[in-house]
Amino acid sequence: MFIILTKMKTYKSIIFVTLLIVQVLLSACYEPVANTSDDFSEDSPETISETNTSTDVTNKSENLETNTASEPENTSMTETTKTETKTAVGFRANLEQKLSQHGLSISTVANESSPVEKRILNEYGAVFLTKATPPDKTMFTSDSEVNAFQSKAGSSSESIGGATIELQTAAMEALKKAIAEAKQSGVKITPRDGAEAAKRSYKKTLDLWNSRFEPALKHWKSKKRLTDEQISRLKSLPIKQQVQEVLELEKQGIYFNTFFNNSILYSVAAPGTSQHLSMLAFDATEFGNKKVRQIMAKHGWFRTVQNDEPHFTYLGYQESELPRLGLKKVTKKGGEFWVPDV
Ligand SMILES: [Zn+2]
User: Fold this and answer.
1) What residue spans define the domains of the chain?
2) pTM above 0.85, yes or no
3) How many Å lie between the centroid of ligand 1 and the Cα of residue 196?
4) 91 C-alpha vs ligand 1 centroid, how far in Å?
């Protein structure tokens, strides 16, 4: 009996050690793989494989450049920070490190058991790595939460292109530099849709959500896919739960976007999740101009929300630093986007 037990223990140890080695090997040679199981993904498999091939190559070469190029910058840091900076590998490790500088952690920022919050972190989470003040929640649920964050982060206002634009101060300074450089190069950077291009209120994101949610309720009632009871229940739910249930209904083909044929999240952000609430986003009219995107990137502004082409996010880094932070470049028809490499 003892021998059997010992043998079992030995086998268990061997299995455990083997699993450990496999895990280490897997994480060491991890290649970004598209999340094909993503319920919300709009991409055809062809697009995904094309994108990933080009992304992998870019990431690897840029990674090499970054590791050497970023050395001098670190010299002014303390010994501890230096070690941390070097050891943080991948998006989540960098994220944990950046958040801790603001007294936050992944678990305080996102409830990852919620598919919506998990998605916001893993798909649009580049914003949490910003050099400015990152949002302290993946999903704000009230005006007062948003107001508290906005006043803590601080902001500056400027009149740009005839609109009053409000952003976190570091983001605004970088935008002003980008606009000045654009002017010298003979191109313009102007806000799309006026003041809406930058800071937004929680109410605004809720109104946008309702502008899709309510017509869809009527539509699906007329199609007899939703009953009055279901509708009044959905309307009465706390917002997080309402978003959750809308996404569940969409799995059954009851879609809430403008044309009732796709996920509402392709049409509007879930309420309380827009990067505009953090005052770290700017929608530029001239997003289609590659020169404009290069100038924005030079000043720390990158597109981080796939398919939202006019939308730029203030990260504050040079482009060559992004792969080291665990972000990957995805190239689409409309140009490049920087997203978490998870
Ligand atoms: Zn935007």
Assistant:
1) 45-140+147-198+279-342, 203-266
2) no
3) 8
4) 23
